[in-house]
């Protein structure tokens, strides 16, 4: 006989929900969004480390140094420092927002129900989902190019397909990504664990190939592309904010992964080991490889897929492209599909299951890349480049998510004091449908950030967008909650 009321039990600081009919029959619940059982939380610190190695070693990370030197006016040394500092900084919200996922086994959208409301959580979820779908499309474009170059190295006739071959590669890689995520969290865990050492080997191999053709002293001495005598502070701050924005999205939905961690210690150590150093080293590799590309292949090439495609040996091209396909797959599945899959389910859990949500994510990502795909097929002509989309819109848009990170941290640690009503997050009778404190705290800094774009006096507010947004969002949410605490703010039920 099915129990009517849900029960919550604790084992070694981890909470588990025995769902009764009050939760099972709720429109806010489905099996995929349910809290993980304690026995399902099997990811240790090395699995978490492998997750970050798999996500950080990707084509966009490789190009970060070039983005900072070309678009943000930094020297090579300043660019690499900005990348290192940014990833140390972003560890703070990543680790803090991972805590409730590990403790309660809940994904990001369910956690947001505490600070934005049961229904209101859908707004920040869909904002986050759109960013992820954009990144999914871009990564799939790189993966499709790698497949095209792989097949071109094996079959001579494939090279003649040109852009059509790239589009076919895109669709093959697109389908492969969706298949991995539909198979579930264990597939992602093993993909990341197996791919991490392979990706490290790729990096070492590329470095050995490039080093004889580049002078590090000359590379570090290249002057910055900014006005002579200009202060480095404002340029460095803008670059730092953009680099924090690179993982700002994951700092929100890290509970989607930490819900599988064995303990808080595992998620903390795994993230510390896996993120900052991997990002710094692979971005450094990108800087070195780009500098060496002129001597290696005769032209400056800023992405590894195209660079390796210039190698004359079909065997080495095929091997390298196979490894890049694995690298891009490991990044894309974890960083860009898991989150929107959960976010779309949150809209209507009884109607949208994981498989439907994965397919929806794929279709949105495909739609966002339709312009680029039509260009490759020769059906349209346009000057809009993928690099422009990557370096401007997505990084800037990601920085606007700072307020959500600040609100989440303040709500869980300061307002709820790490105590959530686990069953109540899946029902309509504990937390409000719309929690307007969250929307006010999110809306004010976003509005100020957008207004600062047209003001020289307040341009710093945009330049430091993620920092100003997360700090102001958290402060406003805390102030509103203290002045007028909601019933759930003082609950101690777990």
TrEMBL record:
GO terms for cellular component: plasma membrane. It is a multi-pass membrane protein. One of its GO terms (molecular function) is nucleobase transmembrane transporter activity. Keywords: Membrane, Transmembrane, Transmembrane helix. The keyword Magnesium does not apply. Its main location: membrane. Belongs to the purine-cytosine permease (2.A.39) family. This is Nitrate reductase. It comes from Pseudomonas frederiksbergensis.
């Amino acid at each position: 006989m099915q129990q009517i009321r849900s029960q919550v039990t604790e084992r070694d600081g981890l909470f588990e929900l025995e769902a009764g009919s009050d939760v099972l029959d709720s429109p806010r619940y489905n099996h995929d969004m349910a809290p993980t059982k304690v026995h399902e939380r099997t990811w240790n610190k090395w699995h978490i480390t492998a997750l970050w190695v798999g996500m950080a070693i990707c084509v966009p990370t490789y190009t970060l140094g070039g983005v900072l030197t070309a678009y943000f006016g930094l020297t090579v040394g300043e660019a690499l420092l900005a990348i290192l500092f940014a990833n140390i900084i972003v560890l703070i919200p990543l680790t803090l927002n991972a805590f409730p996922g590990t403790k309660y086994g809940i994904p990001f959208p369910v956690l947001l129900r505490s600070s934005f409301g049961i229904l209101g959580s859908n707004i920040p979820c869909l904002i986050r989902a759109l960013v992820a779908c954009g990144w999914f499309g871009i990564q799939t474009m790189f993966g499709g190019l790698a497949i095209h170059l792989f097949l071109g190295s094996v079959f001579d006739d494939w090279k003649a397909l040109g852009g059509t071959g790239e589009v076919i590669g895109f669709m093959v890689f697109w389908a492969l990504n969706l298949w991995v995520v539909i198979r579930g969290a264990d597939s992602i865990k093993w993909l990341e664990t197996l791919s991490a050492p392979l990706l490290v080997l790729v990096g070492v191999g590329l470095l050995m190939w490039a080093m004889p053709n580049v002078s590090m002293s000359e590379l570090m001495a290249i002057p910055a592309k900014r006005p002579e005598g200009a202060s480095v502070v404002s340029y460095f701050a803008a670059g730092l904010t953009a680099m924090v924005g690179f993982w700002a999205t994951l700092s929100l939905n890290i509970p989607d992964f930490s819900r599988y961690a064995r303990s808080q210690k595992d998620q903390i150590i795994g993230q510390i080991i896996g993120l900052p150093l991997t990002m710094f080293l692979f971005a450094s590799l990108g800087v070195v490889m780009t500098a060496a590309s002129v001597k290696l292949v005769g032209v400056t090439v800023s992405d590894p897929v195209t660079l390796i495609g210039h190698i004359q040996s079909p065997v080495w091209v095929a091997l390298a492209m196979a490894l890049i396909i694995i690298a891009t797959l490991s990044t894309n599945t974890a960083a860009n599909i898991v989150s929107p899959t959960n976010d779309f389910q949150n809209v209507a859990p009884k109607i949208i299951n994981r498989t439907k949500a994965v397919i929806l994510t794929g279709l949105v990502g495909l739609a966002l890349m339709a312009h680029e795909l039509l260009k490759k097929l020769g059906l349209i002509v346009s000057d809009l480049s993928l690099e422009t989309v990557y370096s401007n819109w997505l990084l800037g848009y990601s920085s606007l998510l700072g307020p959500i990170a600040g609100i989440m941290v303040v709500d869980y640690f300061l307002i709820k004091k790490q105590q959530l009503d686990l069953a109540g997050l899946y029902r309509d009778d504990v937390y409000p449908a719309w929690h307007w404190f969250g929307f006010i705290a999110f809306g004010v800094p976003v509005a100020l950030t957008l207004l600062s774009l047209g003001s020289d006096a307040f341009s710093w507010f945009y330049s430091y967008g993620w920092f100003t947004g997360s700090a102001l969002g958290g402060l406003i949410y805390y102030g509103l909650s203290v002045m007028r605490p909601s019933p759930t703010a003082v609950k101690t039920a777990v």
